[in-house]
Amino acid sequence: MKTFSLSLMISACLALANVATAQTQAAAPAAPVSVYDEHADARAELNQALAAARAQHKNVLVVFGANWCPDCRALDGKMKAGALASLVDKRFVLLKVDVGRFNRNTDLAEQMGVPLKKGIPAAAVLKSDGDVLKATGGGELADARSMGDEAVLKVLQDLHGKS
Q1: Domain coordinates in residue numbering, the chain
Q2: Where does the Thioredoxin domain lie (predicted)?
Q3: Rounded distance, CA 63 to CA 28, Å?
Q4: Distance between CA 151 and CA 143 in Å, rounded?
Q5: How far is the C-alpha of 82 from the C-alpha of 76, rounded, in Å?
């Protein structure tokens, strides 16, 4: 009899452990969505974006950010819907450049006049020949989570130089 009740206790404990594991997994937050390719060759992608911009008669919108950054992910989401998506699609070839923990592609940001120390996401607009039209300089997009679509739209329009 002792063996039987011991096995019942073990079975009950295992069942409880399985329930607890399932509840923990259900309550665990989802992993952040990856919107920046952490393994991309940013310079090669920039060359491709410039070629596409020439072919499409558009400018290049370069957005510097990182997957760990909630404001970067928020900006990406905002640019995929509504008026922002329309503006980006109509006027830009979009290039998202991963900056890691400020240890990747910082030289590229610096060349474009984008001060990453002011916060990310940060952006620059390039003509199709690679010349920088304008760049964020003071963390204009660094609070993208709390910015409304209109505020983000205004920053992008200011970068592009058109309404």
Answers
A1: 1-29, 42-160
A2: 24-158
A3: 30
A4: 11
A5: 12
**151-157: which pairs have CB atoms within 8 A and are 24 or more residues apart?**
152/75, 152/78, 152/79, 152/84, 153/83, 153/84, 153/87, 155/123, 156/61, 156/84, 156/87, 156/88, 156/123, 157/87
- Helices of type H across 63-124: 70-78, 82-91, 106-111
Name the pTM for this structure: 0.80
- 95 SS3 class: strand
pLDDT in tens, 16-70: 445 444 454 555 556 557 899 999 999 999 999 999 999 999 999 999 999 999 9
Instruction: Considering the domain delimited by 42-160, tell me its CATH architecture.
Output: 3-Layer(aba) Sandwich (3.40)
3-state secondary structure of 1: coil
Helix, coil or strand: residue 65: strand
Tens-digit pLDDT profile for residues 132-158: 999 999 999 999 999 999 999 999 989
Determine the residue type at 74: A
Residue with tokens 């992910």: 73
In whole angstroms, what is the distance from residue 111 CA to residue 114 CA? 8
